Amino acid sequence: MRRYPLLPRSLRRLDRRAGFAATFLAAAMLVGFIGPSPPERPQKQLVRWTGEGHDWLLVGDREHDRIQAYDARDGRPLGTLDRASGLGDVDRLVLEGRWLVVLGNDAPKAVRLPGLRAQPLASRTR
Question: Which helix H or strand E contains 117, and what residues bound it?
Answer without folding.
Answer: strand 117-120
